[in-house]
């Protein structure tokens, strides 16, 4: 018997939504078919991340006719990772799935994730073996990024995975206690530990609309991933400092010899310009790297709330404004 439990459903599905009005009805339809087949109690948690289309109205309509649908609506666009975090904060399920609203993560895979979890895992993440309909540049940069990240971090962040995954409530609890503001959830989940495994799946094409991830947002996200899980860039900055100082020292000896011994010192404009430019560049890069970390420290010590909720409805209850 399929039923909806108010407190601890077997499964919560957290779905961040940014301008996905046209995708939501089909997403819900396919998800409901899946959870009904799975014979579990469930709740669907939509997080409206400051959409500027009528996604919120659509979510409200869906919630009005389906008591298992709950939502959190944020006061503005806080970004995908924060939207997911807001959803995890209110999800009550014994297992929690994170998936996109644009049908790129096929709803049917949810039952496979759930089944795999029952074999005794706390986390099962989806590994994208094939990505349909994404630009060559996106695929190549993503591939490069995950490989770079895995080389320079101590945490074993799985290659080619997004946030599409299922997690035990234990893991979700730990995530809620991680206060960092520059969220890189797929890394945080890896950090948490427990028994984790993966399932291969084909990432579908977005059903309608356009990706909310601009290259700018992706770059920011990549920096967050690197700075949250690696201090390699900082170490690289000091390594560069040593290397450049070494070269400078050798040049110094050469300069002194040229001046005092070989008496060959009139020319040299090119070498001065080159070394000034080179040293200036290296210094700026290193200050920039230190700045990236400092900015994140600053962000975190400010201690602002991670997101602001405008309105919300919990599953099986009336709507209430906060
Ligand atoms: N999303 C969000 N806030 C944003 C950008 C995206 O909540 O600022 C949601 C979006 O609605 C979708 C998921 O995050 O459900 C993944 O985003 P998108 O499809 O735009 O990224 P892509 O799949 O292109 O990486
Ligand atoms: Mg997408």
TrEMBL record:
<keyword id="KW-0808">Transferase</keyword>
<feature type="transmembrane region" description="Helical">
    <location>
        <begin position="239"/>
        <end position="262"/>
    </location>
</feature>
<dbReference type="InterPro" id="IPR029044">
    <property type="entry name" value="Nucleotide-diphossugar_trans"/>
</dbReference>
<feature type="domain" description="Glycosyltransferase 2-like">
    <location>
        <begin position="12"/>
        <end position="172"/>
    </location>
</feature>
<keyword id="KW-1003">Cell membrane</keyword>
<keyword id="KW-0812">Transmembrane</keyword>
<dbReference type="Pfam" id="PF00535">
    <property type="entry name" value="Glycos_transf_2"/>
</dbReference>
<protein>
    <submittedName>
        <fullName>Glycosyltransferase family 2 protein</fullName>
    </submittedName>
</protein>
<feature type="transmembrane region" description="Helical">
    <location>
        <begin position="268"/>
        <end position="295"/>
    </location>
</feature>
<dbReference type="GO" id="GO:0005886">
    <property type="term" value="C:plasma membrane"/>
</dbReference>
<dbReference type="InterPro" id="IPR001173">
    <property type="entry name" value="Glyco_trans_2-like"/>
</dbReference>
<comment type="similarity">
    <text>Belongs to the glycosyltransferase 2 family. GtrB subfamily.</text>
</comment>
<keyword id="KW-0328">Glycosyltransferase</keyword>
<keyword id="KW-0472">Membrane</keyword>
<dbReference type="GO" id="GO:0016757">
    <property type="term" value="F:glycosyltransferase activity"/>
</dbReference>
<dbReference type="InterPro" id="IPR050256">
    <property type="entry name" value="Glycosyltransferase_2"/>
</dbReference>
<keyword id="KW-1133">Transmembrane helix</keyword>
């Amino acid at each position: 018997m399929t039923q909806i439990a108010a407190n601890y459903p077997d499964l919560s599905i957290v779905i961040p939504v940014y301008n996905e009005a046209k995708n939501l009805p089909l997403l819900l339809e396919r998800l409901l078919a899946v959870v009904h087949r799975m014979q579990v109690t469930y709740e669907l948690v939509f997080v409206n991340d400051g959409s500027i289309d009528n996604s919120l109205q659509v979510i409200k309509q869906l919630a009005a006719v389906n008591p298992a649908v709950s939502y959190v609506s944020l006061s503005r666009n806080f970004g995908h990772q924060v939207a997911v975090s807001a959803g995890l904060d209110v999800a009550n399920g014994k297992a929690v799935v994170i998936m996109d609203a644009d049908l790129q993560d096929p709803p049917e895979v949810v039952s496979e994730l759930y089944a795999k979890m029952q074999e005794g895992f706390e986390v099962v993440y989806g590994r994208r073996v094939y990505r349909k309909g994404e630009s060559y540049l996106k695929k190549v940069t993503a591939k490069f990024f995950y490989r770079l990240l895995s080389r320079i971090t101590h945490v074993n962040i799985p290659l080619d995975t997004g946030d599409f995954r299922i997690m035990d409530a234990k893991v979700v609890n730990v995530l809620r206690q991680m206060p960092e503001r520059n969220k890189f959830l797929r890394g945080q989940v890896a950090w948490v530990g427990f028994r984790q495994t993966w399932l291969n799946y084909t990432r579908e094409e977005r059903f309608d609309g356009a990706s909310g991830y601009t290259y700018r947002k992706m770059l920011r996200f990549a920096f967050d991933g690197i700075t949250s899980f690696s201090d390699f860039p900082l170490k690289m900055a000091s390594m560069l400092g040593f290397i450049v100082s070494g070269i400078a020292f050798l040049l110094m000896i050469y300069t002194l010899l040229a001046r005092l011994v070989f008496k060959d010192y009139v020319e040299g404009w090119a070498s001065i310009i080159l070394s000034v430019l080179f040293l200036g560049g290296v210094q700026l890069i290193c200050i920039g790297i230190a700045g990236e970390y400092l900015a994140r420290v600053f962000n975190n010590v400010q201690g602002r709330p991670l997101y602001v909720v405008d309105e919300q409805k919990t599953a099986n209850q009336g709507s209430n404004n906060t």
